[in-house]
Amino acid sequence: MEWWQAALWGLAGGGAAAVVSLSAAVVSASYTWPWRKEGDLGPRMFVLAAGLLLGAVTAAAAHDQMRGPWPAFIFGVAAPATIRGVLAGVEVTPRSGTEQLGRRRTPEVVPGGDDGEDTL
Question: How many angstroms from the chain centroid is the CA of residue 119?
Fold first, then answer.
C-alpha cells in the first residue's frame, strides 16, 4: 500500500470517529445541534480537522506495515481517541502571581520535620 492510500484510509477512519462523536453530542443535546446552545462552530470544526489530520498522518506513517485498507482505517479511527486519552491525564492549573517563570521555589524548612535523609 502506498503512503497516500494509507493516508486516505486513515482520513476515512478519522471521519468515522468524528461522525460517532458528533452523533453522541447530538443525542446528549436532546437531538439538537450542540453548537447552537454552547459556543461557536469554529472550535468544533478545528477539532474535526485535527482528528482527520491525526488519522491521516498516523496511517501514512505506518503504511509500510500495512497490506490493505482495513489497518489504515483502524489507525484513523483510533488516532483521535488515543490523543484524547493521552490528554485526559493532563491537568492545567493557573499560576499564582508570586511564581516567576524559570525559577524554582525553594522548599520550606520545617523545624523537627523531615531532614531529607531516608532512614530504614
Answer: 42
Helices (H), strands (E): how many in the chain?
3, 0
User: In sequence order, what are the residues at sequence separation of 6 or more whose Cβ sits closer than 8 angstroms to the Cβ of residue 6?
Assistant: 59, 60, 62, 63, 66, 72, 75
Cα angle: 90, vertex 81, 45; to 5 degrees: 90
**pTM above threshold 0.85:** no
pLDDT digits (tens, 9 = 90+) for 27-49: 787 777 777 766 677 777 777 78
Predicted confidence (pLDDT) per residue in 67-91, tens digit: 888 988 888 888 877 777 777 777 7
Distance, C-alpha 67 to centroid of its chain: 27
